[in-house]
Amino acid sequence: MKLLKLRNNLIVQALIVFIIFFIAYLSNLRYDYFKNLETHSPRRLMTSRDYVGNTFLPYLIIKKGTFNFADDLKVINKYIQGKPYYVIDVNGGYYGKYPVFTGVLAVPIYLIPVILKIPQLETMLDVYKILALGRIAASFYTALSVAILYMIIRKLWDKNNYGIFPFLFITAYALGTNVLSIASRGLWLHTSSILLISLGILLMVLSIKNPKYIPFLSLIAGLSVIARTTNIFFAATLFLYVLLHYRKYLITFILFTTPTVILYFLQNKLLYGDFFLEGYQLNDKIEFVTPLFDGLHGLLFSPGKGFLFTTPLMFIGIIYMIFFYILRLQKNDMDEKKRLMAYLGIVFLCGLLLNAKWRDWHGADRFGPALLTEFLPITALFSYDLFDKFIRRNKVLALSIFVIISLYSMYAHVNTVHFRKSRCSADHVWTFYCLTKPSKELLY
User: Fold this and answer.
1) What is the pTM of this model?
2) Is 43 helix (H, G, I), strand (E, B) or coil?
């Protein structure tokens, strides 16, 4: 009886989900590490220089108590060749171009290995050890976000017992989306953002029955913006949600968000010299110049970067999201679960429109709709809700369609991770090249 209760305990189930996917995300770490040592190239461990800053930042914090790369940039760039655009020069110091929250979050995972194994950052082996730690940290936090989404699904659809289906769905989500090919591969801003947004959604679910979680919800809202500025849509939607449905807690929400707002401005001042400037603004152009139709068309339908061909399980969720609003508005039918999903859908649609306008809507050489990675928990909930309804009407047909779509999605992202090293050139936005196995010489 005790074993049965333990098996049915949601926390235990979530822990098992976490362990399974943490191991899955690290399954090729050993191969990547030794292949990089053999080839003298960090290509497998460092799939993009975008996250070099946050990968080495924990080392700087632990060893030197600084955010300044000045003393170690030469060594890093010796073994990760190319223009170090990931840092910017501020009054003679070099600081990360991108928000530093992801790197700070990784400090606990780096702490013991850095103290024991990396006394100085001097050799290629030292650099590659830190790259491996970055993969471990990214895999840890991504697996944690997957476990949190599993808890959300079980709480929102707990009355519908479909046996193993929730786990099958979470497997397709974890291995058949940019959760695998982006978030788990390295310390992207997407990695911390998808964790915070997943946790925020869970707190929203818990707040339905117990508003005492709202202060924690407000903290997550603020931290999500610190992690990645475009998460402002998530924070603003949470504020609106509390304002309209939990008004008596509005002051509490504001008070608990205030420390993160102060932290955001202090971070900018200390690192970049201005309360209102981030590193990106100092070193790059912020341009939303892509025609909206072009960006939307690409993010939804292009073979290399669009949801339809790279992540069809989530594409179904997006289409269902649109019909969800049409049907709900017509019927004026909103229970607490539907109301929560309606707010979350707003977050995704705003993010989709913003990224469609961005000058690099395709995410440069990232695979799939990578710039929307942190919003995947939202599309996943809509996709699950659709299959929940479908299963009740025709279980065999629903599960058959789900399995076919999920296997294809997992093929696309596993192929990208193991054979294309998580990349897809912007030259192949409108070709199927990135969905195929590369020629032998590119495998290494």
Assistant:
1) 0.95
2) coil
